[in-house]
Amino acid sequence: MLDRPRPELLVSLHDVTPAHARSLEVLYRLLDELGVRRYALLVVPNWHGAWPLAQFPAFTAGLRARAAAGAEIVLHGLRHDEVGQRRTLAHRARTVGRTDREGEFASLEAPEAAARIDQGLAVLREAGLEPLGFVPPAWLARPELEPVVRDAGLAFTEDTHAVTAVALGQRIAAPATCWSTRRGWRRAGSVLVAAARLRLEQGRPLVRVAFHPPDAEWPGVLASCRRTLTTLLERRQVMSYAALLARDTPLPTG
To answer: Is 139 helix (H, G, I), strand (E, B) or coil?
Structure first.
C-alpha cells in the first residue's frame, strides 16, 4: 500500500519594507526558531511613497542574505497604497473590509498595472533582488492581472484562494490564513478563525500561511501566529513556490 503524500505548506511574509524593519525582525526570529528556511518575502519597493529601497542599503543587504539562504523574493505592489487613485463606488465595493486604502492594484487596468510592475521590478533588480512572482497588495486585482504578470516575465501571482502559475493560467488551490490587526474585534476574530482553519483544512493537500508586520505588534496575535505555524509544521512539510511551479503533476485547481 502506497503512503499518501504528506500535505504541504507555503509560508510568506508580506509588506517587507524598511518601514516595518523592527516588526519583521520579530517575525524572522519566529521563522528561525521554528526552523523554517523556505518562505517568500513579499517586498514593497517604495512603501507609501516614503520608503524607497534604494535609500536603505543595509535593509536590502539583509534581504539578499535571506534570499541566498533559501527565501524567495516576490514583488508586492509598488507603493502599497491608493494615493492618486480614484476611489469609485465599484472600487470601494471591491475593497470594503479587505484593506484600509492599500488596495493599490484593486482597480488598475492592465496598462497601468504593467507600468507599476515594471517600475517595481527595476527597483528590486537594482537592489540585487530577483523576484519570482507578483502578489498585489491585499491580494486584490482585476482579472486581467494574470497576463500582465506573465508578460513581465514572472512565474506566478495569487489571491486568497489559490496560486496561479501564469505561464499556463493554472490555478492551484491553496487557501491562505492571515490575521487582521486594525481593530480589537478583528484581532480577536482572526485568532479564532486561524484556530478553526487548522481543523477545517486538515485534508487539503496545500495551504498557505501569510504573516504581516503588525502581527508582531500584538501579543495575542503573535501567539496565534506561533501556534498556527507550529501546528502546521507538525502536519505538513514546507515547500517553496519554485518547487510548486516546477511540478510535473499539479495539485488540484481552485
So the answer is: helix
The 8-class DSSP code of residue 6 comes to P
C-alpha cell at 130: 530577483
- Please give the distance of CA 222 from its chain centroid, rounded to a whole number: 17
Report yes or no: 208 and 13 within 8 Å, Cβ to Cβ: no
Strand 8-16 and strand 170-173: the pairing is unpaired
C-alpha cell at position 110: 492592465
Q: How far is CA 131 from CA 23, 159, 196, 199, in A?
A: 22, 17, 33, 33
Angle at 140 between CA 102 and CA 236, to 5 degrees: 110
The pLDDT tens digits of the residues spanning 141-178 come to 998 999 999 999 999 999 999 999 999 899 999 999 99
As a whole number of angstroms, the distance between CA 233 and CA 222 comes to: 16
Q: Does the predicted TM-score (pTM) go above 0.85? A: yes
